[in-house]
Amino acid sequence: MNRKLIVFLASLTFLSSCEDSTKKAQLTMPISNNAVAMAYNKIDQEYLLYSFNGLGANKDWKAVKSDAFSFNLLTNQSKQIQPVPGSNGRLASIAATVNNQIYIFGGYTVAEDHSEISTPEVYRFDPISEEYKLITKMPTPVDDSVALVYLDRFIYLISGWHNDGNVSLVQILDTKDMSWYQGTPYPGAPVFGHAAGIVNNQMIISDGVKVLNIVDGKRHYGISDDNYLGKINPNDFTQIEWTKLTMHPGKARYRMASTGSKTLNKVIFVGGSDNPYNFNGIGYNGTPSEPNDLIFAYDFTANNWQELGIQKTPSMDHRGLLEFNDKFYILGGILSKQKTTNKIQEIQLEN
Prior knowledge:
By secondary structure, this protein is mainly β. It is 0% helix and 48% strand. The relative contact order is 0.14.
């Protein structure tokens, strides 16, 4: 089944971090669903945004890439770095930063007949040496998952797609010794293309795509409106207390950009589409998918959902939302009428 629309991030031209900057932030080519992360180069004292893997603008199996790029937030310059190792490009991978090292999880390969295989490799990227190291493999390879960091040590992979179906697994990587643990399973219907964020020991998992029904042995997929709060037991990192939340503002969505903000004590959600789609941007129902513009968050202080304004240029098909100096950024994405974009958007939140 063709599930994913991903366009590869080639290089970036970024908006100045100055408050009064009026320059337009742009990518050098339209991209969407690229794995993104941020790290700090301690030697050069530079903050960098990174993009790994993805799919070229032709949107076919031959356009699957493993290329990678960095972007300097202080100098507004980008450069191509070594591609992610492996004989094939990958789609729907996810990245997370621990102790200033970037961990790149899986993704999936696409063959000429459009068959897909979830890849198990986990690479660690050093922002100083710009080198990769294969450090481990996922016990159950997943793509289109979420990766959440706890105590700057543990990475939680929650639900996601494995080869031919969704899984409810919570796979935990201890980056101290590269050992794997199984956490309390995700209690909702297993999903892919969901969005999530974590602040301290509390995480929010929202929406995605689940199995709606099975007809004549064939699974039919559609949007999930499940939202869960997970609290990690401070005495046992494998134990998660799950609580089902009420529905967030607006419609349930697929492939939102999201992150947990310690400064705001919130998990922020931006973009996504309420009509899940194939790689060409056309929904499983045959209707072209459109992005949703409502920005919302879960506030851990107030313990409720909040609306935080409207995205100026609605977008969908994201892998992450990046926070730097109390600002939030989306790299690329798909705009209205399935048009991939080269924009880097600074997301404006209303208080």
